[in-house]
Amino acid sequence: MKRGLLICALFALLALPAIAPAQTHADHGSQPMMEHKGDHHAMQQHRTKSLMVGEQTVDGIKGMVHLNDVGAMMAEMGMKENYHFMIMLTDAATGQSVEQGTVAVKITDPKTGQPGEAIPLMGMGGHFGADVLLPVKGAYTFVVGSKLADGKKRQFTFVYTLK
Q: Residue 48: pLDDT band by 50, 70, 90 thresholds?
């Protein structure tokens, strides 16, 4: 459990450049990531690809989804997850980040068309995220459900083809 929280916290810190207000979509080509080698002092930089999945506004809240390819780094730690799924939520009127609430994602398998179990997303300093396994190439559907601090339930749907 501590290892999972440590990894999630690491991804939150590393994702901050991906959500900087001055950054454009063209800047999302790659993000520096860190490799875990036993302790924080022994980490080395890794380059990983950040994929823009899409944006959608639902009931006054804009959701922007990215996938970070972390497969090589996770494999080195003996983990099967190969992407970090993240959604940044902002108030569409003010642009202010929304960081309080409960958020989860269901991922539809491109081979079977069946949605998986809901995966809770942790609040990670500017986004909600989790490490996920996307095992095959194909069109994935991500259905993000949320109940934010305003008490409203919202559902965002994104489709991304993994090549």
A: low
Q: Which two tokens stand for residue 95?
A: 């642009």
Q: Which residues lie below 8 Å from residue 72, measured CB to CB, with a gap of 6+?
A: 46, 48
Is pLDDT at 131 greater than 80 in this prediction?
yes
pLDDT at 32: 34
**Cβ contacts of 66 within 8 Å, gap of 6 or more:** 15, 18, 28, 50, 51, 52, 53, 86, 88
User: For residue range 109-123, what is the model confidence (pLDDT) as tens digits?
Assistant: 999 999 999 999 999
Select from 124, 87, 123, 88 the least CA-distant residue to 107: 87
pLDDT for 8: 46
Beta bridge partners of 83: 69, 132
Q: Are 74 and 3 in contact (CB under 8 A)?
A: no
Strands across the sheet with 61-69, in order? 30-35, 44-58, 61-69, 83-91, 128-132, 119-123, 101-108, 138-148, 153-162
**What's the pLDDT at 49?**
84
Q: Pick the closest to residue 122 from 142, 101, 143, 107 (CA basis).
A: 101
3-class secondary structure, 45? strand
